[in-house]
Amino acid sequence: MSIYLNKDSKIIVQGMTGGMGAKHTTLMVESGANIVGGVNARKAGTTVELGGKELPVFGTVEEAMKETGADVSVAFVPPAFTKDACFEAIDAEIPLLVVITEGVPVLDTAEVVQYLEGRSTRMIGPNCPGIITPEESLAGITPHTIAGKGPVGLVSKSGTLTYQMMFELKDFGFTTAIGIGGDPIVGTTHIDALEAFENDPDTLAIVMIGEIGGDAEERAAAYIKDHVTKPVVGYVAGFTAPEGKTMGHAGAIVSGSSGTAQAKKEALEAAGVKVGKTPSETAALMREILQNL
Question: Which domain holds residue 69?
Answer without folding.
Answer: 10-124
